[in-house]
Amino acid sequence: MIRDDHMETVSPFDEAGIEATIREAAEAGTPIVVRGAGSRSGLGRPVQAAITLSTERLTGVTLLEPSELVVSAKAGTTVAEVEAELARVGQRLAFEPLDHRALYGTTAEPTVGGLVATNASGPRRVIAGAARDALIGVRLTTGRAETIRSGGRVMKNVTGYDLVKFACGSHGVLGVVTEATFKTLPIAETEATLVLEGLDDAHGVAALCAGMGTPFEVSGAAHLPALNGAPSRTCLRLENFESQVAYRAGQLAARLKGFGTASRLDAEASRTLWREIGAAASLLGAPERAVWRVSVAPTRGPGVVARLGPLAEAHIYDWSGGLIWVATSAEGDAGASTLRPIVREARGHATLMRAPDAVRAAVDVFEPEAPALARLTAGLRASFDPAGVLNLGRMHAR
C-alpha cells in the first residue's frame, strides 16, 4: 500500500489493502471518498472526506474468454485497455461506455470501477441495454471491510439479493468495486447513419420513434437541434455486416420519407458523429453552463423542453428522445426549482450532471426519493456501510 500524506490519498495494491483502509476508517469514524482516475469527479454531490481511497493501482484484465463472450478487469484498469483487449478478439462492450471527460474538462482515462459506479452507458443503450445489463459479476469491498463476490460468468446466476445490480450505479456508497465482469458482443463489421435535416424537436423525436419501431435494428437514435447556424440533425445509426447495413439503410430511408430525404454518413463519419453525441458536452455550448440529464418517455420530451422555455439554453435528445441533455445557467439553483416540477409532471426524473460545487451541495443532484424509497435506500446502505464512511453525501444529503 502507498500513502500520500500530503494529498491524504491511500492507493492500495490489492483488496487486502482496501479492506485495511476501510476497517481503520470505520473504527475511527473517518469519512472516505472513493476515486478511480478522477475523470468523473464532478458527478454527484461534493463529498467532504479526510481520506481519498484510490483504486488506480488495481489494474489488469483478469479474464478474457472470447468463446464465452466474457471479460473481467480490476477496478483501476482503464476502459480503453479493456476495449483494446476486446477489439483484439473482435468484441466490444455493447453498451458503448459513456466518457464524461468532455463534460467535466478532465483528462484522466476513465476506469472500470468508475464505469460500474456510475452505470456510464452511451448511445447504444437504446438497443443494447445499460452497463448494468451487461455487468454479470463484481467483487465489492463493503464498508464492513469485507470483500464479497457476486455473480459470475453467465447471466442467470442470482440467488437472494442481486448485488451486481445494487453495485452498478451506486456511486461508491455501498462499497468499493475491485473487479467487474461483463458480457460482451462481437464488433460490427461496419456502420452507417441516416441523417434528416431541418426537423423541429417534435418531428425529430417522432422520426426517431418511427425508426426504432421498424425491424431494422437502429442502434443509435438522437436529435440534435439547430446550432450555430447549422440545421437540426435527426440521426439514426445502423450496424452489422456491410451488405446488411446497405439494405437496411435503404429500407429505413424509405420508411422515413414522410419526414424528408435522409442523407447517409459512411462508417468513419458515423463513428465521429456518435462519439460527439456520446460526449454531449460539445453540443451543449459553454463549459460554465450547468448540465442536466433528463429521462422521460420519448414522446413527452419535446413538451418538457418547450415548457422549460429560455431556461434551456441548449439541449439534445438521445435514446430515441428518452434522454434529454439540457444546459442551463449555473446561477442560483441551476434551474432546479423550475425544471424538476416540469419533469416530474411528465413522469420523468432529472440528474444534475454538472454544476459548481456550491450548487451541487445546495440542491438535490439526483431525483429526490419518495419517503418509503428513501427508507429502503438508507437501510440498504446501513447494511453495507454501518459506520457511514464511504462517499458520505455523494448521492443524497445526510
From TrEMBL:
PANTHER family: D-LACTATE DEHYDROGENASE, GLYCOLATE OXIDASE SUBUNIT GLCE. Keywords: FAD, Flavoprotein. GO terms for molecular function: catalytic activity; FAD binding. This is 2-hydroxy-acid oxidase. It comes from the Bacteria. InterPro entries: FAD-bd_PCMH, FAD-bd_PCMH-like_sf, FAD-bd_PCMH_sub2, FAD-linked_Oxase-like_C, Oxid_FAD_bind_N. It comes from Methylopila capsulata. The keyword Flavoprotein applies.
